[in-house]
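retry 2 of 3: previous attempt timed out while embedding magnesium ion. Reduced batch size to 1 and resubmitted. Inputs unchanged:
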Amino acid sequence: MAQGKRLTLGQIGEFGLIQRVERIFGRPNRPGLVQGIGDDAAVVKIGHNKALLYTTDILIEDVHFSLKYEGFLDIGWKALAVNISDIASMGATPTWGVISVGVPVSIPVDNVDKLAQGVAKLARKYRIGIIGGDTVKSPDRLVVNIALLGEAPVQDILYRHGASPGDALFVTNRVGEAAAGLAVLKDRWQLAVNGWPKIKKQIVKKYLRPEPRVKESVLIVKNKLASSMIDISDGLHISIKLLCARSKVGARVYLDKIPLNKQLSPPKADQPLAETINYQHALQLALSGGEDYELLFTVPQNKIRKALALFPHGWIGEITKDKICKVLDQNGREVITRNTGYEHFKTK
Ligand code: ADP
Ligand code: MG
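retry 2 succeeded.
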C-alpha cells in the first residue's frame, strides 16, 4: 500500500530530484560561495578578484553513449568536452581535472588506453591538466566521470541569471546537427542529398567529437557582449527555459531564425525537397535534440551590433518581461513542442 504512494523519479524527473537534494545539502557553512547549485558550474571566490569554478558530469554506457556506435576515443573526448562546455558557458577558462572510471572486467586494456587518450587529446588542446581520479570495477556498464576546475576574474563570470527584458537572444552556431548525427548512427539515416557522404561525416563528427565553444566564450567575455549565458547540451528549447527561469524573464524565439544546417533541410518550410529531412523535423532536432554544446547568451541592446558582427547568424529572438517562453513560427503562431529537451527519469 505505502509502496504505491511513494513518489517515483518518473514523477519528479531530474530537475525535481536536484531541488530535493539542494534542500538536503542546504547553505554551506563556509565563506566564499558565489554560485552554488543551479548553474552550469559552481563558483567560489579564492582571491580579491579571482574565482574558482567547479563542475562535474558523468557518462553512463547505454544512457549517454553506446559501444555499438561510439569508440573509446570518442567516449573519452566527450567526457571532457561536456565538462569544458560547462566552464566555457560561464565565461571561464578550464584548468584542472580529475577522472573516475568504472570499468567492466571484460573490456580489453587497450580500449581503456584509448578512452584515456581521447581525454588527453582534448585536454592538450585546451591546456587542461588531468591530475587524478579513481579506477574501479563496474558490474556490466562503463561509467566515466570527470570533475573539472576553471578560473576567471569574478566580474567576467556569466550566469544563467542576468538576462533583462529587451536583451537579444543569441546562439553561437548551428543547432540540430549532433542530434542528426546520432540518428545517422542509431537509426541508420540515409538522405538522398548531394554530397551526402561528406555531410554525413560532418554531422556524425558533431555528435561523436563535440567541440566545446571555448573560443566563442572568450570572444563573448572579451567584448563584454553578454548579460547571461548557458550551454545547450540538453537541447536549445529547454536551455532557453532554464535561462529565462533563472533570470525571471520570458523569451520570444523566432523559429525561422534558428541557424540550421541548410544542406540537411530546405531553407523554407514550403519548399519541398524530396527525401531530405523535412524542415519541421530539422527544427525539432534543433529545438530538442540536445548534444549541441553551443552557447546560448543574451545581449543588451547597446551590444547587439557588435554581437551580430561576431555571430552573424546568432540572433534567434528576444527577452521579454512576461516570463513566458514562446517559440513563434513565420506567421507569429506559437509552436507547441511535445518535448523541449532531455530530462533524466521523466516519464511524461
Ligand atoms: P548541466 O547540464 O549544465 O551539467 P545539470 O542540469 O546537470 O547541469 O545540473 C543543474 C545544477 O544542479 C548544476 O548546478 C549542478 O551542479 C546541480 N546538480 C546536479 N545534480 C546534483 C546533485 N546530485 N547534487 C548536487 N547538485 C547537483
Ligand atoms: Mg551545462
